[in-house]
Write a structure and sequence with these properties.
CATH architecture of the largest domain: Sandwich
Shape: elongated
Distance between the termini: 31 Å
CATH topology of the largest domain: Immunoglobulin-like
Strand order of the largest sheet: 1-14-11-10-19
Largest sheet: 5 strands, mixed
Radius of gyration: 24 Å
Structural class: mainly beta
Number of domains: 2
Strand content: 35-45%
Number of helices: 5
Helix content: under 10%
Order of helices and strands: EHEEEHEEHEEEHEEEEEEEEEHE
Number of strands: 19
CATH superfamily of the largest domain: C2 domain
């Protein structure tokens, strides 16, 4: 019925119901480095200044070198961040969306003490033209803070599918406040089709040879639809699974890699034992989808199944952040022992 079946023992006994912070310092250190963490495009301070001013840039695609080029010329009349000193130290940053995890950011140098910076720099992306045309260019201006608390000064978003590529001239564009869609993370990353089931300890009866002495969570990853197409040939994807707070090798499982397919079928089942019913309130199943390459894997999106309380065994954790859909899916599993619960859940940034 499934391509691969894995059974993993998940040990909860080290997690006390009322732990002291000291006793959990080593466990929580590993929790902070959970797999699949991707920095936001919007890492910084939005509330200090209002977006204003303009930016001059030009776009071009070098067919010979297969290179997308963003020529950032200059900015005018930017907001003043440090009003006491009457200064801003601006730089320009670009991303290709929604594929920010793969392509990474590009940025200009920082110009000190000016609201009219001149850059004359070219930011370059090695990317196939047909892949570029399904992206959007996000160009934003930031004040550089020595302590790392950079301030947002404005942005512009360009739909590259509708861009006039015969226009290679420098043009001025007004900087706008942050876009609500980007801030809320509304970018389509695909949908995961899966089923989950909880088998309470001893619930199958004494006569059943497979009656588990401790509870089990079964996760059946069926398929994923509409993944980001990172290459003209598609994407080489696989799914990772952890049951948090355990990030050890015992918890880690993954599917095989499905090549050149934005709608991969995995049909992969994983079984975690060692679950008591009360552990379901504090655990979280994290499923992440990755693009496989020789040197590094690229995060595509994921889901987290849990109660989304922000707490695990009384300790605040950032991974207990399930959406309403994910929480409802987990709650339905908790209330329907020994039954497969089916769901279609959208992938998101984690």
């Amino acid at each position: 019925e499934s391509d691969t079946a894995s059974e993993i023992s998940f040990q909860f006994n080290k997690h006390k119901k009322t732990p002291s912070i000291g006793s959990h310092s080593s466990d929580m250190a590993s929790v902070s480095s959970v797999s699949g963490s991707v920095l936001s495009v919007y890492s910084g301070d939005f509330g200090s200044v209002d977006a204003q001013g303009t930016v001059e840039f030009a776009l071009d695609y070098d067919e010979k070198n297969r290179e997308f080029q963003v020529h950032v010329s200059q900015c005018k009349d930017l907001a003043v961040v440090d009003e006491r000193k009457g200064r801003s130290d601006p730089y320009v940053k670009t991303y290709l969306l929604p594929d920010k995890a793969r392509m990474g950011k590009r940025k200009t140098s920082v110009k000190k003490r000016t609201v009219n910076p001149i850059y004359n720099e070219v930011l370059r992306y090695k990317i196939e033209k047909m892949v570029l045309l399904i992206q959007k260019l996000n160009l934003s201006v930031w004040h550089n803070d020595p302590l790392g608390r950079n301030s947002f000064l404005g942005e512009i978003e360009v739909d590259l599918a509708s861009w006039d590529w015969s226009n290679r001239k420098l043009n001025w564009y007004p900087l706008k406040p942050r876009s609500l869609s980007a801030v809320n993370g509304v970018d389509h990353r695909g949908v995961m089709n899966l089923s989950i089931k909880y088998v309470p300890p001893g619930s199958l009866g004494k006569m059943c040879p497979k009656n588990p002495p401790s509870g089990e969570v079964h996760i059946w990853v069926k398929d994923v639809k509409d993944l980001l197409q990172l290459r003209p040939s598609g994407v080489d994807s696989f799914v990772k699974c952890y049951v948090l707070p355990d990030t050890s090798k015992k918890s880690y499982q993954k599917t095989r890699v499905i090549k050149r397919d934005t709608n991969p079928v995995f049909n992969h089942t994983i079984v975690y034992d060692g679950f008591h019913t009360e552990d379901l309130k504090d655990a979280c199943v994290e499923l992440t989808v990755w693009d496989h390459e020789k040197l590094t894997n690229h995060f595509l999106g994921g889901i987290r199944l849990g109660l989304g309380t922000g707490l695990s065994y009384g300790i605040s954790v950032d991974w207990m952040d399930s959406t309403q859909e994910e929480v409802a899916f987990w709650q339905e599993m908790m209330s329907a022992a020994n039954e497969w619960i089916e769901g279609l859940l959208p992938l998101r940034s984690l």
